Amino acid sequence: MNMAHLLTLGCGIVSLQRNGNVFRPTRLGLLAYLLAVKPVDIFPVRPALDVEATPAHPRRSPGRASRIETILLRSLVVLFVLALLACGFGAQHISYVREKNRLGRDLRRTELDLRALTQTYRSLEAEKSVELAQRSLQPPPQPAKADLVQQAVPAKTSRTSVVQECKSTPTSAGGAAFSRQRTRVADGRHPTRRSRVAGR
Amino acid sequence: MFKPFQYRRLAAIVLLVLAGLVWVCDRLFDIQITRHRELLVRARQYAQSRRVLEARRGEIRDRNGVVVAISTPVKSIYLNPALCSNRLDQVAQTIGPLLEIPPEALAERVRSCLQRSDRGAGEPQKALLLRHNVPVDEWRGIATALDLEMFGLGKPNLSAAEQAQLRKLRHQILFARDTQSRSYPGGESLCQVLGFVSSRTNGSGLAGACGIERSCDEVLAGKDGECLSQQDAAGNELPAYREHYEMPTDGNRVVLTVDLRLQRIVEQALASARTQYRARGVSAIVMDPKTFEVLALACCPGFNPQNPGASTNETWRNGVFTDMVEPGSILKFIPLAGALELGLTTLDSRIYCEHGLFVVNKVPVHDHAPYGLLTCRQCFAKSSNIAFSKIGLALGPERLYRCMTNFGLARCPGVPFADETSGRICLPRTWTTMSLTRAAFGQGVSVSQLQMAVAMCVIANNGRMMRPYLVSRIESPQGQILRQYQPQFVRSVVSPQTAQQVTEALKAVVSPEGTGNLAALDRYTVAAKTGTAQKSDGHSYVAGRYYSSMIGFFPADAPRFVIAVALDEPQNGYYAGTVAAPVFRSIAEQIAACLQIPPDKGTSVPAGNTLARPTPSIAQPAPLPASRVPVQVPNANHAFASTPKR
User: Fold this and answer.
1) Strand, helix or coil at B237?
2) Closest Cα in chain B, distance from residue A24 (Å)
3) pTM above 0.90?
């Protein structure tokens, strides 16, 4: 046997054991070979009616090299299948990610548009509120002059009397004689000695 | 069959493959297990983006729905310094005019930023803030103009790499971040109530710094959202890889009890009063005595909440709520109410005023004019300190203190408002006779203007105290009412009869013989009290520095508004009757005209708003509840001597 047979995959895999098997084609297609579970049994087809009469063909135990080749081939096949599956999943994942990104971009664009619109709406709303508030804060129309005069008359007399009263009161609310005796009270401490207070 | 050398070759190949597999496994183990955490962090740094989605701060409105504070979406514009390191001048020349920044100044800022990075002062700065609070429309204009800039792309003989770099420069040199700015449509109006906002410590969003903005910050701020996602090499978010997305919850709306129409009236009156009397500061508060709602509140001078830095810190403070002052004579209605409630006196009881000099424990008490024998009503109208010293002595420290605290002094009014003061009154066990006599006419105690307004509201509300409040309701951003604040009864301070008697005394103050006659209105009855308190510098009273105030309500028999006015250190006159009373009158007149209050002078007063209150005589005092039976105090007869001593 030659390991070179294993590597000849260009036009199919050459049968490993062809001697004496008249039913086996000399060259197997790759697919047929891959589907084969084990090496082809080279024993000829037994007569259907005379099973006992037909002498059993002695089965040859495969050699060590043959077993290694088989294992390697099977491993390759499994790897190949896995690679195919991975490629399939990979392609699917790529398309999934692309679609996801496209949707994300759309979402982002929509979000930005929505935000811009919200901002515009809120700006306009704020402007409107500011305008309304400023309008309501404008001074009211001045009352008629006659009303003002009418309201001012009684106040004038009373103000005069108060001014006179103020003049009659002591000029200083705190005399020099008592100023030394004052202490702090604004912070809630006890008032101690104090002078006269304004008291009105 | 294999030849031996073929077996060796095969074995060598297998060994090589195995060795390769072992190496791969080792690397995988190293990457996936040993350095997993470190590499995960690094990968996240490169790929993960975390964005805070700023919640919109809620509005503040007045009781009629007029917006007084609102958030406007704006942009903060940043520049990426790393992109323009080798084209600094070109970038500055192009971008400067768009942002209205001189190119030289812009270049200098970017250069200093780059130099900082080169010196190794921290990580290289990825963004340099160029302008903030840029309106959305303006940013759009800037972005469009930037797209039209060539950045030298039109030059011939540019390599593909250079073209790519210039395109990147054009698209990524400037970027903007969404943020918000706070607008106050009224300008300085209501500034001390509203307060202002500042940036949060993490740089995202706004936080209330003082006023209602601070008190109601949790309600107004809302809840920021968060977006955890992956980003591409250019820093663009990949929404397909969002790990966590939480929408922001906008802040709720706060509706105040303040009426902007009244607020405007008060502010105008205060501004003109400050000019006229050259006062250091003027403040006023208007309250509804039925509900204890704050209807208007102003302090002058104010500040612009949108630019608070332009004014001094003092103007930021809401003095009505936060400043402790010695109230002076406006406090006299509280001991009067206590004495009337306890049956220690009546309005017609006569008190000898010692002709202007009363010595208590060798310490004199003076009146501003010498009075002889006056009725209690007259003593109150003329604001006799001597008479109220005697009333204080009659009450005694314990009862006077209890009377004051029952009226809400020395207790936080509980509006609530940031830095609301509770005032200070010493415990009665530490009072001396002198402090007792002084406290009865408003010295030695510290109160806020709000506390005095609340105490006056108690009188106007037939002795029933409610909790004052400034926030009417909380609404969702869509206008749904989430919480409605109702008037909250606190306690009954004095009986309705006593309140009515105090009202009668307060009306006498505004009569022609009273100190507050300038506050009288033509078509409305007014009940008020004036007070001129000397100011202390911390050690002693200072001559020429006064705190003039007036507090009262109108119409007197069916109170609608309680008004408290205070002038701090007026220069053109200082007696409250001459400086505060006209301001009180002006505010009351304008409010009545604005709200079309039906006049009560010369017309019959609505029956439901008055109480038939017989005035108790000295011989037969009004029956008091068991808990209010007056306790005999020593020297009570001395305090209420009905005959002159000299």
Assistant:
1) strand
2) 22
3) no
Q: Which helix (H) or strand (E) is B534 found in, with range?
A: strand B527-536
Best mutation target among B534, B567, B572, B591 (most A Cβ atoms within 10 Å) is B534
Residue B569 sits at the chain A interface (C-beta within 8 Å): no
Continuous H helices in chain A: 4-7, 30-35, 64-137, 145-168, 176-179
User: Residue B238: which of A104, A182, A187 has the nearest Cβ?
Assistant: A104
Q: Which of B578, B563, B582, B516 is nearest to B320 (CA)?
A: B563
- Do the chains contact at A197 and B441, CB–CB below 8 Å? yes
Q: Look at strands B128-135 and B67-79 and give their pairing.
A: antiparallel
In sequence order, what E strands does B247-339 have? Answer: 253-256, 281-288, 293-300
Residues 66 through 95 of chain B touching chain A, CB cutoff 8 Å: 66-68, 70-73
Q: Extract the tokens encoding A172.
A: 């200083």
- State mean pLDDT over B528-538: 88
Of A1-5, B282-286, B325-329, B490-494, the range with the lowest mean pLDDT is A1-5
pLDDT-based confidence at residue B580 (cuts at 50, 70, 90): very high
* B240–A103 CB contact, under 8 Å: yes
DSSP A196: -
Cβ-contact B490, B557 below 8 angstroms = no
A171 touches chain B (CB under 8 A): no
CA–CA gap between residue B146 and residue B326 (Å, rounded): 62
| Confidence at residue B416, expressed as pLDDT on a 0 to 100 scale | 78
Cβ of A135 under 8 Å from any chain B Cβ? no
Q: From CA A199, how far away is CA B385, in angstroms rounded?
A: 6
Contact B538 A172 (CB under 8 A): no
How many A/B residue pairs have CB atoms within 8 Å? 226
pLDDT of A33 over the 70 cut: no
**A120 touches B: beta carbon within 8 Å:** yes
β-pair partners for B363: B360
Closest by alpha carbon to B457, among B333, B603, B324, B342?
B333
The interface residues of chain B toward chain A in range 114-133, judged by CB-CB distance below 8 A, are none
CB atoms closer than 10 angstroms to residue B152: 15
- Single-letter code of the amino acid located at B222: G
pLDDT at position B619 over 70: no
Ramachandran bin of B383, using left for φ above 0, alpha for ψ from -120 to 50, beta for the remaining angles: left
pLDDT band at B119 (very low <50, low <70, confident <90, very high): low
C-beta separation of B50 from B227 below 8 A: yes
Tell me how far apart the terminal alpha carbons of chain A are, to the nearest angstrom.
129
The residue count for chain B: 646
Query: Are A184 and B72 inside 8 Å of each other by CB?
Result: no
Q: Is B33 exposed, middle or buried (0-12, 13-18, 19+ CB in 10 A)?
A: exposed
Which of B 194-233 lie inside 8 A of A, CB atoms?
A: none
Contact B532, B546 (CB under 8 A): yes
Q: Is the pLDDT of residue B613 over 60?
A: no
Angstroms from A39 CA to nearest CA on chain B: 17
- Best B536, B545, B550, B601 residue to mutate vs chain A (most A CBs within 10 Å): B536
The pair of three-digit structure tokens given for residue B545, joined into one six-digit string: 């520095």
Whether B555 contacts B597, CB under 8 Å: yes
Tokens representing A101 are 């990104």
Query: Which residues 398-437 in chain B show a CB within 8 A of chain A?
Result: 423-426, 430-432, 434-435
Q: Which domains are present in chain B? A: 50-186+226-252 (3.90.1310), 260-300+317-619 (3.40.710.10)
Closest Cα partner for A41 from A58, A64, A63? A58
Task: Centre a 10 Å sphere on the Cβ of residue B32 and count the other Cβ atoms it contains.
Answer: 10
